[in-house]
């Protein structure tokens, strides 16, 4: 079931009313309802893969007790089983064909011709997210950060809570499970905040991302026929398409969770106002980058074992992060590019420069240095997005070469504004709005003037009605 669908607009109020007016007497019944609703939400997409979600959930629930054992060998055995189980599921459904074709090509180089059996099944929606939920839970038990959950329904809700089930954010057991286990009371203020986040997320997805998608797809599909100006517009357009698509989903997820009394972790904090790549990754897909930092980077030694091991570990997490997105060399190249941007900051010990502050913290506008830093970081990120968006590395390189060749051959093209510059009519207002709320990602529509705030509600609702809901437009991160 998609957030931007009529089915969800019917599903949500029904579950909300049952949750607060029928099952509100007992947290156990509320959790049971949430679990049933989550399975229904997932099964609406495909009931065939619902069994895989349930199997994965029960296996990690069982492994949690073994990992909690005082016997270190037994604990390590169950931890290993959990990792094999989760990575095995990902390997079969997400990466099997990729590695099978690589092996076929390698053998062909030695004159050995094979015809591997390839899987012809859809990638289960949300598989990368719910498997990471399970692994983080087991890892935390092994590290002594929490005890295993005895109530299987509570654990199942943690893994499959429908707002975050198919595209995150990737929650931590220590953050979400206590909320699942505690009594929840209806909070009007929290619900209003949730509605605001949902409205803004829906606007970013339906009005901005889906509107940009048509232009971006056309430019990337026919890049050979366009000049540099249009290709640059296409790359910038995709940067904002994927941002509005994914952060829009996260806003809707956070807002929906608030309606049921839950607070999820923030996944985006205005990443395109970052002053370097390190800050960008503290603001983009926060739940994934922090997951890799805690469960991969630190266990590998982080930066505590010398400079060159820190460089090695950084490359590993960026390459793995790229591969997490999909079985394609383009994603690995995307991760490699970001690693190359991060390493100089690490070596110069500038990677932790912007940890807690925001750009122009106590000012209305950035200074010249900050503005140049934001622009240069955005340009770097946008070039990397070309590899993320392109079907092959060769296509991405050709796209960039076309920009360079066209710029050198006809520089006067930049004096004429093409039709595709219409994308900036979506981007510029978004940037202004984001800049206004950059200090607090949860402060959407917290405006003192009632007239102005309500006017914005009306305008956004009208724009959504004008554009309409394209129920075939899936969220980009559904395929990850």
Explain this structure.
It is a single chain. With 480 residues, the chain is mostly helical. It folds into two domains: 6-185, no CATH class; 190-275 and 354-479, no CATH class. The chain is 66% helix and 0% strand. It is built from 17 helices and no strands. The protein has helices at 6-21, 27-43, 50-67, 72-109, 127-142, 152-160, 173-181, 188-221, 228-259, 277-283, 286-297, 307-324, 329-347, 368-389, 393-409, 424-436, 450-467. The protein is globular. The two termini are 16 Å apart.
Short description:
The chain has 480 residues and is an all-alpha fold. The protein has 2 domains: 6-185, no CATH class; 190-275 and 354-479, no CATH class.
Strand residues, percent: under 5%
**Domain module count:** 2
How many beta-strand elements? 0
Radius of gyration: 23 Å
Mean pLDDT: 90
The rough form would be described as globular
- What's the end-to-end separation, in Å? 16 Å
Multimeric state: single chain
Number of helical regions: 17
Find the structural class using helix and strand composition.
Answer: mainly alpha
H/E order of the elements? HHHHHHHHHHHHHHHHH
Catalogue the unreliable spans: none
- Main β-sheet: number of strands, strand sense, barrel status? none
Fraction in helix: 55-70%
């Amino acid at each position: 079931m998609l957030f931007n669908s009529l089915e969800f607009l019917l599903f949500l109020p029904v579950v909300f009313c049952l949750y607060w007016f029928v099952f509100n007497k007992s947290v156990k019944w509320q959790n049971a309802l949430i679990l049933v609703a989550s399975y229904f939400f997932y099964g609406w997409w495909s009931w065939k893969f619902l069994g895989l979600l349930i199997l994965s959930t029960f296996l990690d629930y069982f492994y949690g007790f073994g990992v909690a054992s005082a016997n270190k060998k037994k604990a390590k055995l169950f931890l290993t089983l959990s990792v094999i189980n989760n990575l095995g599921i990902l390997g079969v459904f997400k990466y099997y064909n990729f590695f099978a074709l690589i092996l076929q090509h390698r053998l062909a180089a030695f004159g050995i011709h094979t015809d591997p059996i390839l899987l012809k099944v859809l990638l289960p929606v949300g598989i990368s997210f719910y498997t990471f939920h399970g692994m983080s839970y087991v890892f935390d038990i092994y590290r002594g950060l929490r005890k295993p959950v005895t109530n299987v329904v509570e654990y199942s809700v943690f893994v499959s809570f429908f707002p975050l089930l198919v595209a995150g954010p990737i929650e931590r057991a220590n953050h979400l499970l206590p909320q699942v286990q505690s009594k929840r009371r209806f909070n009007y203020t929290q619900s209003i905040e949730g509605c605001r986040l949902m409205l803004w997320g829906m606007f970013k997805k339906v009005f901005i991302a889906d509107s940009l998608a048509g232009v971006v797809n056309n430019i990337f599909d026919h890049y050979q026929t366009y000049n540099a100006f249009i290709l640059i517009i296409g790359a910038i357009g995709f940067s904002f398409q994927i941002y509005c698509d994914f952060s829009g989903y996260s806003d809707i997820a956070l807002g929906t969770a608030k309606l049921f009394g839950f607070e999820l972790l923030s996944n985006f904090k205005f990443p395109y106002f970052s002053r370097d790549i390190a800050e960008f990754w503290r603001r983009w897909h926060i739940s994934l980058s922090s997951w890799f930092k805690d469960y991969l980077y630190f266990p590998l030694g982080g930066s505590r074992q010398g400079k060159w091991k820190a460089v090695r570990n950084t490359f590993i997490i960026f390459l793995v992060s790229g591969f997490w997105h999909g079985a394609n060399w383009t994603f690995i190249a995307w991760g490699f590019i970001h690693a190359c941007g991060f390493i100089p900051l690490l070596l110069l010990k500038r990677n932790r420069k912007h940890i807690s502050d925001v750009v122009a913290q106590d000012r209305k506008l950035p200074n010249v240095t900050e503005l140049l830093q934001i622009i240069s970081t955005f340009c770097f990120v946008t070039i990397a997005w070309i590899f993320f968006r392109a079907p092959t590395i060769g296509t991405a390189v050709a796209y960039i070469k076309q920009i360079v060749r066209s710029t050198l051959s006809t520089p006067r093209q930049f004096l004429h504004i093409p039709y595709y510059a219409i994308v900036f009519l979506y981007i510029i207002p978004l940037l202004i709005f984001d800049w206004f709320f950059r200090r607090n990602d949860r402060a959407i529509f917290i405006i003192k003037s009632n007239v102005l705030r309500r006017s914005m509600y009306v305008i956004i609702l009208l724009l959504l009605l004008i554009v309409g809901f394209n129920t075939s437009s899936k969220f980009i991160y559904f395929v990850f």
